[in-house]
Design goal:
The complex is a heterodimer of chains A (322) and B (391). With 322 residues, chain A is of the alpha+beta class. Chain A is built from nine helices and eight strands. With 391 residues, chain B is an alpha/beta fold. Chain B contains 13 helices and 17 strands. In chain B, the strands form four sheets. In chain B, strands 3, 4, 5, 8, 9, 16 and 17 form a seven-stranded mixed β-sheet that branches. Chain B has a six-stranded parallel β-sheet with strand order 12-11-10-13-14-15, sandwiched between helices. In chain B, α5 (172-181) crosses α6 and α5 (172-181) crosses α12. The chains are: A alpha+beta (322), B alpha/beta (391).
């Protein structure tokens, strides 16, 4: 059927902002500056830290140097938070190596080794800070865009009028708890988010063309900044109205939050598909269809395995109809 | 109330379940007076249809008396006290599919449409007692049933025909009829029907009513072939006859003009090695359906003919004879029956005595003996062809 909703998710291309990030670049240069003497003159380098130049020390120093050069190449060539986390791992390795050197120290150059350890702790702190902040910044800077569409066998005027009455949206949109009109072009929205939290925001209507288009966006201070648009297009051959929905929002927790939500069965594009399916049901049949297996109607997809396909008890029925 | 429930593969049992009640405003509650076991119930019993759950009420062929209607029901269409036959696919009457008489593809009545869409590409209608893939609606092998969108779907019976005469309007008679109608039978057409179960028998009757010159039944169950022969149809027992040569013999070498697959996903094959191959693939789920009948129908059909598929398939098949189908200009037509489209015209044919649906009934059992009914139907014991249950 042409009217089957088909949601797609578009995410902004991962930004190459790390390339211009001074901290990331600085750490890359530092890796190069350390790695080069470690590889070319391992004996001198080891001595300068006060750990002696036995063949074993030279070999370890050389290996650490290779690792530093790899990190430098990554951070400067193809910046990604993974390289920063790689540095954090390297730091942990270095701290354990120097700690071992301190335990077995023969006393010559001990001061230099202690200073090395202090320096390492500072560098580790900087690396952890860089890795954490760059990871989070990159992820939350990713807005999510969802689109879905369905065809309803009703004229655009009627479909538009139904959507226009915002307080009816929660009857078919699974995650909306309540929409209240608070003034001309203003409304207050309350939705349940993954993991049982509620999010609320105020929205303003940014465009409203009868029988054609409604657009809105959250006003400043929203928990989850978002915007949306729904277009009503006459379907060819008198097939009714195509409803095209686009929603954009900053997914809390970025990719991590999205993955977790998906794990718990709350894939946003599926939600939007199902929301539009129910919108169509309400307009074409008068209400959201309930079955014994999916008696809540609205939350059908989240309920697998479902209630068995047998009639509900009185208590179950009261609960789902409440 | 008592209801026949799915427990696990190969096990159903009659147990106490809550009475159904109105959940949507256009619902009705029907007190069931007659219900039946369908061949496709055996696919559920055998565990070949995914998303069955323990406790699901079985049954999609039922009729009865309306005892309650929801506040949104159009009372000009249906009222308390009406005697109705309930079609197995739930339609809404308002979507593009229903408006185009494709009721079993209704876009609105399956609350689990998202799951069905993942499996089939596009969703299908809700069906009573037929897994959660088709909505998770309780079925009609019970004392009462909730009927959805009651002012659109049920057929009111106002004449004095018996339950047994009209019960099969819920599924198997329209299904068989649609199989024959899809054949676009023309003067002189020979129609071959794979499967002489109840749907196959009705496909044969319908082919004759629609003007077929000759009807051929193909099966390996002797008493089912006898039942077809008693109606004047030619028969081929594939367990000891080569189907291809027999069909060529019966058609002067032309092959049947139209072929109907009334078998579906659990076909058996005369050649043990071919059956074993598909059975093994099915067991390891590398194909879900065994398509022997379909393969044979395609390769047997005369060039330019129509292969009409009403046997149920659920998933994927292997070794589809695409070369035969494409090079010989065959047309493949399919569908779960759009029952609502055929109920009234077929009721008129029953009233005019053109078709006698009661001829396939071999067993009449109380609802409490439903598990026994499944057993004899599945294992073809006691010459079982069709079981009618009475609550």
């Amino acid at each position: 059927m042409t009217s089957s909703p088909e949601a797609t998710v578009r995410r902004a291309a991962p930004g190459s902002s790390l390339r211009q990030d001074p901290l990331t670049r600085g750490l890359g240069v530092a890796s190069a500056a350390l790695g080069l003497p470690q590889v070319t003159r391992p004996a001198d380098f080891a001595r300068s830290l006060g750990v002696g130049d036995a063949p074993r020390h030279r070999a370890v120093t050389e290996l650490v140097g290779v690792r530093e050069l790899a990190a430098a190449a990554g951070l400067l060539g193809r910046p990604h938070p993974a390289w920063l986390w790689g540095r954090v791992c390297g730091d942990a390795m270095d701290i354990s190596l120097v700690a071992r050197a301190l335990r077995h120290h023969d006393g010559r150059g001990l001061r230099r080794t202690v200073l090395t350890m202090a320096g390492l702790v500072v560098i580790t702190a900087v690396d952890v800070y860089a890795a954490v902040t760059r990871t989070i910044r990159k992820e939350t800077a990713t807005p999510m865009e969802l689109t879905s569409t369905t065809t309803v066998t009703r004229p655009p005027e009627e479909v538009y009028a139904f959507w226009r009455q915002l307080d009816r949206l929660p009857t078919f949109m699974a995650h909306l708890e309540e929409v209240r009109v608070t003034g001309p072009g203003r409304s207050h929205w309350r939705a349940s988010a993954p993991f049982g939290q509620d999010v609320e925001w105020d929205a303003e209507t940014t465009d409203d063309v009868p029988a054609q288009r409604i657009a809105w966006r959250s006003v400043d201070g929203a928990d989850v900044p978002n915007s949306g648009e729904v277009r009503f297009v006459p379907a060819p051959g008198g097939r009714g109205t195509e409803v095209h929905v686009t929603l954009s929002y900053e997914m809390p927790g970025g990719a991590l939050g999205k993955a977790a939500a998906k794990y718990f069965g709350e894939e946003p594009s599926q939600q939007l598909d199902d929301d539009l399916r129910r919108f169509k049901q309400v307009l074409e049949t008068g209400e959201v269809i309930r079955s014994d297996g999916a008696p809540r109607g609205k939350q059908a997809r989240e309920e697998f395995p479902q209630h068995p396909a047998r009639p509900l008890t009185d208590e179950e029925r009261k609960e789902v109809l409440a | 109330m008592k209801a026949n429930c799915w427990v696990s593969p190969n096990k159903v049992e009659v147990t106490d379940v809550p009475d159904p009640a109105i959940l949507n405003s256009r619902d009705a509650i029907v007190k069931i007076t007659a219900t039946a076991i369908c061949g496709s119930d055996l696919h559920l019993l055998d565990g070949y249809v995914p998303t069955m759950q323990k406790g699901d009420v079985m049954g999609h062929e039922f009729m009865g008396e309306v005892v309650e209607v929801g506040p949104g029901v159009d009372r000009d269409k249906i009222r308390v006290g009406d005697r109705v036959v309930v079609p197995f696919p739930i339609g809404c009457g308002a979507c593009f599919a229903c408006q185009n008489q494709l009721w079993s593809c209704c876009e609105n009545t399956n609350p689990n449409a998202g799951v069905a869409e993942k499996m089939f590409g596009h969703p299908v209608a809700g069906i009573y007692g037929y897994s959660h893939l088709t909505g998770g609606f309780a079925g009609g092998q019970a004392e009462y049933a909730r009927v959805v969108l009651a002012d659109v779907n049920p057929l009111k019976i106002e004449s004095d025909l018996t339950d047994e005469q009209v019960l099969f309007l819920s599924d198997i008679l329209p299904t068989g009829y649609m199989g024959a109608e899809m054949c676009e039978i023309a003067d002189g057409d020979v129609v071959a029907v794979w499967g002489a179960g109840p749907v196959g028998q009705f496909a044969m009757d319908s082919a004759r009513v629609l003007g077929a010159a000759k009807v051929i039944a193909i099966d390996d169950v002797p008493y089912r072939l006898e039942m077809a022969a008693s109606q004047g149809y030619e028969t081929i027992d594939y367990s000891h006859t080569d189907v291809r040569s027999a069909l060529l013999e019966l058609t002067g070498g032309r092959g049947p003009d139209k072929c109907i697959d009334a078998v579906g996903m659990e076909a058996t094959h005369g050649a043990a090695h071919v059956h074993l191959y598909d059975r093994a693939k099915q067991a390891v789920r590398s194909e879900t359906d065994r398509p022997h009948a379909l393969r044979q129908a395609i390769t047997s059909c005369r060039s330019g003919g129509i292969v009409s598929v009403i046997g149920v398939y659920g998933g994927f098949i292997d070794k589809f004879p695409a070369g035969s189908w494409m090079n010989r200009a065959l047309t493949l037509k399919t569908g779960q029956c759009h029952v609502q489209r055929y109920m009234r015209p077929l009721l008129e044919r029953i009233e005019r005595r053109e078709i006698d649906p009661t001829r396939v009934i071999t067993h009449r059992l109380p609802l409490a003996e439903a598990p026994h009914g499944y057993d004899i139907f599945k294992h073809k014991k006691e010459r079982c062809e069709k079981v009618v249950l009475t609550p």
